[in-house]
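Q: Joint fold for the lines below.
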Amino acid sequence: MPERRGEYTVSLSNRPTVLSYAAVGGKKEGQGPLGKQFDAIFEDTHLGEKTWEKAESALQKESLTRALDKAGLSPSQLQYLFAGDLLNQNIASTFGLREMNVPLIGQFGACSTMGQTMAMAAIFVDSGAADLCGAVTSSHFCTAERQFRYPLEYGGQRPPTSQWTATASGAVVVGRAARGVRVSDVCIGRVQDMGVTDMNNMGSAMAPAAADTLAHFFADTETKPNDYDMIATGDLGLVGARLCRELMEQKGYTLGDNYTDCGLLLFDRDTQDVHAGGSGCGCSASVLCAHLLPMLQRGELRNLLFCPTGALMSPTSSQQGESIPGICHALLLESCP
Amino acid sequence: MPERRGEYTVSLSNRPTVLSYAAVGGKKEGQGPLGKQFDAIFEDTHLGEKTWEKAESALQKESLTRALDKAGLSPSQLQYLFAGDLLNQNIASTFGLREMNVPLIGQFGACSTMGQTMAMAAIFVDSGAADLCGAVTSSHFCTAERQFRYPLEYGGQRPPTSQWTATASGAVVVGRAARGVRVSDVCIGRVQDMGVTDMNNMGSAMAPAAADTLAHFFADTETKPNDYDMIATGDLGLVGARLCRELMEQKGYTLGDNYTDCGLLLFDRDTQDVHAGGSGCGCSASVLCAHLLPMLQRGELRNLLFCPTGALMSPTSSQQGESIPGICHALLLESCP
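A: Joint structure:
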């Protein structure tokens, strides 16, 4: 049952476990260092659909269908789907998942969505509110660029601090099991806003939220960074991850070599022209489902502190002079072989 | 603890209770039949802010602050806020609530958001994942019109099936208590899409979702419509509520005089030029918090089946030829004096 642990953390004792997972991505993601670990790579950015938005919906349908198939489950066996994305009114999720015919609880956490959906699924399963839940999210470079920035045809210059929105989706199925990768603790973050207004420097806008959540988690659980085989924020990129280290140092925690960021894992920054790294809901989602969950499953990691971050802004809020609030949710995932 | 009851319903036995609530609205809502029941009416559509979006954020801050004040609570005593709205990337919620400094779990359910946020709060409290949660949502006529339809200055004609987006916000605080208005059952809906494409006929697009969820709830709980003092969908308006009655009849359930719709309660259709009725996340939220919860609290209603509905579309999905998927979540609220 979920139990409060310290001020911000909830411990889950009823063995909510990742029963299966899948990651799908686009051509650029396929060319990156994790390319071969994806369940499927789509060379066509349209996935055969008429629009990029419909293509992003197709990514969610693909990742969830593949995750269900691996567990030998049909959609009707899921009691809830927790899903969200970056598109206005969450249309990637709604239209991608509507045929599943599963009760849908739409989530919005910007690029932290994989953490938020998985946290909700784990808490629901742990509490008995559900036996089986799906958690899924996506992003698409082309839908994000035209919604948040410029038409792709405009060919706008991107500064070094900017990140590259992943064309990818990740899905997990959470149920109760004796073995597997367990969701042991969940720490939901508070909105942190340090006044950053540069839409091309999301990493810096989100880093304070990552540091806030990490510090709360360590305090609540009376642990320290080197108690974990890996701590993966996402998607702070190079600039944000450096700032996160600094902010944690100021809070009295040293993040060692076990610290990384999903935005740094998805692409090869030296050869793939992604500037500060990857971003988008699909970045941490696909890094988790293509790379990190398999490492936990194989026992190469005994535990992982998965801490996806989100920038809770819109073009309208930025045009109206607002700064960019960040959020970060932390999940402790443990390998239980 | 949350316990599955039938295929779609979860029963909550640990007394998750509405500790306090508040509703705030705009001038038109103040002139409506429920006007005097609001906690505050703001004559200025800007609430002293520079933009309508910031005004909508202010509505959320106002309603939650007033709900907390009534319970003698400070924001820091809340463990989670479940919040969402209709604006792109949920900015009304993020910017309205960021200063609360409470862990935020952003929700998206379009006009069903009050039901979704309250369901999440109740399940979290029931399970022990939290002791105190807030649930809040809002809408604003001016932000919705310019985002979903036309610039207000354009003065577009509105057909008779169209609804009027409420300028309003409702907030509830959920905790455990021996007495008060209890959330006893939650039935989360599935996306239902019957192919309606008319953005000016949302009621018809959402009615099938309301009928689907109501029928599931009655089947799961082995009850019938006249077991409830009131069944309130929201916000189907006149056209959608009629269709909901017809669809329920086809499913073998007769909705009697105890059936109403939040979109029909908020405004006086004869004198307020709202065509088919009210809509927007703030409509069912403010009808609940200004009118229905007080009736439960006073014992004038022993129970209420609160069933807010949402249309999960965006202007982009409509421009790309998609139909309008609907969703509806049902909560059984019981008066425990």
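Q: Anything notable?
A: Chain A has a mean pLDDT of 96. Chain A touches chain B through 59 residues (CB under 8 Å).
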